[in-house]
Amino acid sequence: MKYNYDPPVVIKNIFRNWKWNTSNKKVLFTFDDGPITENTIKILDELETSKVKTIFFCVGNNIIKNPELVNEILDRGHEIGNHTMNHKLITNLSAQEFSFELDTFNQLMKERFNYSVKYFRPPHGRFDLITSKKLKERNLINVMWSLLTRDYKNDFNLVKFAVDNYLKKNSIIVLHDSLKSKNIILDSIKYTLERVNKNGFEIGEPAECLK
């Protein structure tokens, strides 16, 4: 079903202030759930080889476990986005609990890395009406997607299907910096890049793609 890869237009229209596609008709890569020792460096190396800049939507607890990987992400010129402290479904949280997830993450990045977070993505892509209010209060930009590769299924053929059918010149692509995707992540990145180039699309950087 298309909506497994690209959210329905009606949802995009209701939440039109969120970023579902890039604003400059360039493709943006994003990675969720890291950083982890098993995956992050090899992703960074592949991105560096391909001269791609991205946003890593990190989980706060993984940042605490792997601060050296956070430094590596930032040193290589990538952005870090708020993916909450504990990767909980925010629709199951009270307003106070959701605020804690947001604020603790942002404080962690500021205090330990002197980094001001600009972007947010909800775990599992789940959100509700209070999400907009909470993000607006914190000047966070909610970055959703128009191409979910489903690489977390650990099936490279599924990634190829997603990219072949739903890649557009203004796609925001979701890949995962996680144990679930680690066996296929490099092939997934390379294949997506090949398809971007074959289609004559351009790859953009976060700041220009999310104006």
CATH class membership = Alpha Beta
> First CA to last CA: what distance?
30 Å
CATH architecture assignment name: Alpha-Beta Barrel
Structural class of the secondary elements? Answer: alpha/beta
At the fourth level of CATH, the homologous superfamily is Glycoside hydrolase/deacetylase
Q: State the shape.
A: globular
Helix content: 40-55%
Average of pLDDT:
97
Give me the strand/helix succession: HEHEHHEHEHEEHEHH
- How many domains make up the coordinates? 1
Q: How many beta-strand segments?
A: 7
Strand order of the largest sheet: 3-2-1-7-6
**Do you know the CATH topology?**
TIM Barrel
Radius of gyration: 16 Å
Low-pLDDT segments, ≥5 res = none
Strand content: 5-15%
Written account of the structure:
- The chain is of the alpha/beta class and 211 residues long.
- The protein has helices at residues 9-14, 40-50, 60-65, 67-75, 95-113, 129-137, 156-166, 185-198, 206-209; strands at 28-32, 55-58, 79-82, 119-120, 141-142, 147-148, 172-176.
- Helix 2 packs parallel to helix 8 and helix 7 runs parallel beside helix 8.
- The mean pLDDT is 97.
Summarize the helices and strands and which ones pair or pack.
Elements lengths: L8 H6 L13 E5 L7 H11 L4 E4 L1 H6 L1 H9 L3 E4 L12 H19 L5 E2 L8 H9 L3 E2 L4 E2 L7 H11 L5 E5 L8 H14 L7 H4 L2
Parallel strand pairs: 1-2, 1-7, 2-3, 4-5, 6-7
Quickly describe the structure.
With 211 residues, the protein is of the alpha/beta class. The chain is 42% helix and 11% strand.
